[in-house]
Amino acid sequence: MFINDRHLSNRPIQWQAHQNSNSEVPENTMAAMKYAWELGGIPEIDIRQTADGIIIGHHDATPKRTLSVPEADQDKQISELTFDQIQQWDAGVKFGEQFRMEKVPSLEQVLTVLSEHPDRQLYLDFKDVDLEVLSGLIRDYGVARQIIFAHNSHENCKSIKRLVPEVRTMLWIPVRSSETAMQTFTDIRQTGFESLDIVQLHLPDGEEKRPWRYKLEKGFIQEALQYLAEAGMELEVLPFKFEQEDLFELLNMGIRRFAVDEPSIFVERLKRYVE
What we know:
Layout: H1 6-9, E1 14-17, H2 30-39, E2 42-49, E3 55-57, H3 83-87, H4 107-115, E4 122-128, H5 131-141, E5 147-151, H6 154-163, E6 168-173, H7 178-190, E7 198-203, H8 218-230, E8 234-239, H9 244-252, E9 257-260, H10 263-274
Parallel strand pairs: 1-2, 1-9, 2-4, 4-5, 5-6, 6-7, 7-8
Antiparallel strand pairs: 2-3
């Protein structure tokens, strides 16, 4: 094994059900939230605000891709539509008949369930909302310590931390190239990881699948893990694809927080690792 820090290896393994590419349930629905919680994971909800100020779970700027929308409304912005309008459309049937009649949930609906289960957690992936309104909802439902706010803007993470200090924040770093991702990490490290609790690195496949599958260099991931552990923080990785040996290698490095697109497959392979 490659783990060189006993503190890292003893941390519990946690995982996020990544929503907009989740291949097992329709994204950003109550079905998706419950599915992740029941599997032992942490669901993510992408948050946008409607024309009448309701924060909802929806990834895209328009309803076209995921909702059963009349042609005349397909290219309208979510911010131009009311919550009642959006509630008229089916958020599950495009995914599969068994999910027919699933609706786009309001964040309040999700937070109501979260508040009833203090052992559960929830990622909020910022898309387009008023942070003052969002922070008010989080405080109203008393769930700040159960929330992980996620965005690729360090400034937005700082803002929500000022508004609700108990909320955990996660900065996600895309990997368009190893160089840009490494520079972004270096830049936030120089701030002392201000207002952050978790850093997420995306792991797209590199050109060669072996001996190391991912575009981001293995040595850099190990360094990032160590820097964050020393700062009392966590590293999360999002491997877009993985086989059992890839997952085991990441776990052996000491990584204990993941985002995954195939929750049931991840859980099944994780069981093999801990057996």
